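Reading a protein record of the kind used here takes only a little practice. To see the layout at work, look at the sequence and C-alpha cells printed below.
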Amino acid sequence: MKKDIHPDYVECKITCLCGNEIETHATQPTINVEICSNCHPFYTGQQKIVDTAGRVERFMNRYKGVYGEDKKN
C-alpha cells in the first residue's frame, strides 16, 4: 500500500436522535444519525408510518376494498 494516502482510523462516537450512543472505529471522530437499531421499527416491533403529503391516505383510498376492514369476500 502507498504511504500517507489513507485517512486515520480513530475511535468514533455515533449519536442517534433518540439519544442512543454507539462507540466504534471510523475515519471520523463523531457521526450523527437520524435512526439506529435502538429506535428503528424493524428492531423495536412498532410500526410507525411517516405520511408525507398524504401518500398513505391516497394509497388506502386507491386500494379501498382490497386491504383492510372494507375487504369484501
